[in-house]
Amino acid sequence: METEVSSKKKNGNKEIKEWILSLAIVLLVAFAIRYFVVSTLVVKGISMEPTFYHGNVIAVNKLIYKVSEPKRGDIIICTYSDVEDEMLIKRVIALPGETVDFMPNDSGKYDVLINGDVINETYTKEGTGFYGDMEYPYTVPEDCYFVMGDNRDNSTDSRWESIGAIDKDRIVGKKMFKIWPIG
User: Fold this and answer.
1) Where exactly are the structural domains of the chain?
2) Catalytically active residues, by annotation
3) What is the per-residue pLDDT across 108-150, written as a single tens digit (0 to 9) for each?
4) Is the previous residue joined to 141 through a cis bond, with omega within 30 degrees of 0?
């Protein structure tokens, strides 16, 4: 009888150890995915309206730009200073080596020109009302990207010398999809 109780106790201890090991592996894998592959971001502010609003939660692919380059129109998450906690969500407007300029249009706003061609920007809230304090035409440096918010008149972005073009190593990831609110 003692051997039966001892055997059950050993089996119980073995099951607990296996359960703890399984839980540890699951937590480790979840942490690795969250840290290296996919994370979430809560949008702060109004600079990306009407695409995203304050409080929206988005999924961020943190791996994509390790294997590919950002493209014009991509919505990226980046930092613009040494403060890693300050994440920006912006749209890539110009790629390395491209020239950015602004030209007044008939609506009283400005068209964005890339290498002399007007780009079609159906995603902006009300068009571009100002072009910041950069000197134009502006050529984007190598390994950098010119980014702007979709709510052009309420966005601090590459149009300002204090931010300028974003180095590729400051790009955290690419927007995958909106998680919240649904719809």
Assistant:
1) 1-36, 38-179
2) 47, 90
3) 999 999 999 999 999 997 889 989 999 999 999 999 999 999 9
4) no
